[in-house]
Known about the structure:
The protein is mainly β. The chain has no helices and five strands. It has a domain at 30-83: N-terminal domain of TfIIb (Single Sheet), CATH 2.20.25. Helices cover 0% and strands 64% of the residues. A five-stranded antiparallel sheet has the order 1-2-3-4-5, with no helix packed on it.
Amino acid sequence: MASLMKHQNIFGRIAYTSKKPDLMNQPRGHETFHITKHNDGKVILRAHCEIEEPEPTVMRDVILSQDKNNKPTDCFIRLTCWR
C-alpha cells in the first residue's frame, strides 16, 4: 500500500572531535538527527547527542517543531549528565 503522507525526510550524523591539545581530533561523541519536512511547510527536528568526554558525559534528546514560517511551535529537551 502506498503511503498517503507527503513529506521529505533528511537523516544525518555529526561526529564530535576534541580540540584539547592532548586529545586533538580524537572522537569525543556524536549526534544523530532526523528532519521531517511536511507538505504544509511544517518541520520537525529530532536530535540525539552523546558527548563521551571522561567527565562529565552528556546525553541530549531534542524534538523541535516549527510552523511553515520556521517559527517554533514547541520544543522538548531532555539533558542527562553523569559525573
